[in-house]
Amino acid sequence: MRAPHRGPSEGRRYPDRVRTQPTSSTPTLFGGTPATTELGPTGRPRTEFPEPAPLESHGPARIITLCNQKGGVGKTTTTINLGAALSEYGRRVLAIDFDPQGALSAGLGVQAHDQPTVYDLLVGSVKDAHDVIVPSRVPGLDVMPANIDLSAAEVHLVNEVAREQILARVLRQVTGEYDVVLVDCQPSLGLLTVNALTAAHGVLIPLECEFFALRGVALLVETIEKVRDRLNPAIELDGILPTMFDSRTLHSREVLERVVEAFGDQVLETVIGRTVKFPDATVSGVPITQFAPGHAAAQAYRQLARELIHRGAAA
């Protein structure tokens, strides 16, 4: 993939530019209708995704793994806030912290040091997944926490039979009680990530709008294809989510343009902007939908929830 051009204009600030095209009521690829003639950051007409209808019952869950081998691209932030947004629409959500750093657990205000964690389920010291699940401060959003112990899991699992399918076996105990399960992976393509991909129905790839983040996407897609071929034929790419987008910089806009050129409609309509509200919300131990419910970032994650439901990627 050709690297974004870095000319002398790199880093300058630009006001948002509104581009228009002739009015059209033609439905988009996934059935939505462009709300206006204004183009969004991806270069496609802005689409208003409808508010989802309430569910009459819960389960079985669709499992979505949030994966990118590059760190700092917004996986944990997206898991927290997408889970909170889905719960606002009446979905029961289980968020699984599958990163030894335990950022998801901390970001939802869950203590993970004096109780069983997902590591105990993987190595078999705890048999019942319900003993590990903890309710968060968000109604309808539960957490399966992790801590630094998880870093030893790959060593313990390396000689296990069907080691890539251990998480899938654990989740069978609880998927009937939830509508969506979100798995927050560590920034690697090791055995834990392969476990998460093997258990998943779909993969959501948060992608920072920065050149070095763009370089690794092809390798990640190749890994997903290998898992589909060898371990999990049903896995799908639910979409690529642009994150940390800053419309004022040429670099962000160029990277997003390259991503859309390369992956087309696999790139979601929703784009998550860069804001200091995310770390502020993390310190408070609540999602941004609670910390700053009217902020543009909270609205973006609500739109992401509606878009995934509209695409059929979430219940």
Features:
alpha/beta; Rossmann fold; seven-stranded mixed β-sheet; 9 strands
Short description:
The chain has 315 residues and is an alpha/beta fold. It is built from twelve helices and nine strands. β1 and β2 form a beta hairpin.
SSE inventory with pairings:
Elements: E1 34-39, E2 45-47, E3 62-66, H1 75-88, E4 93-98, H2 103-107, H3 118-123, E5 134-135, E6 141-144, H4 153-157, H5 166-171, E7 180-185, H6 191-199, E8 202-208, H7 211-215, H8 217-230, E9 236-243, H9 250-263, H10 277-284, H11 288-291, H12 296-311
Parallel strand pairs: 3-7, 3-8, 4-6, 4-7, 8-9
Antiparallel strand pairs: 1-2, 5-6
Helix pairs in contact: 1-12
> What is the number of beta strands?
9
Query: What is the domain total for the residues?
Result: 1
The overall average pLDDT, rounded, is: 87
Strand portion, in percent? 5-15%
Q: How helical, in percent, are the residues?
A: 25-40%
Could you give the order of the helices and strands?
EEEHEHHEEHHEHEHHEHHHH
What fold name stands as the CATH topology? Rossmann fold
Q: Can you summarize the main beta sheet?
A: 7 strands, mixed
CATH superfamily: P-loop containing nucleotide triphosphate hydrolases
* Cα shape: globular
Give the second-level CATH assignment, the architecture.
3-Layer(aba) Sandwich
* Terminal CA distance: 34 Å
Low-pLDDT parts are: 1-27
Class computed from helices, strands and strand pairing: alpha/beta
CATH class: Alpha Beta
Radius of gyration: 19 Å
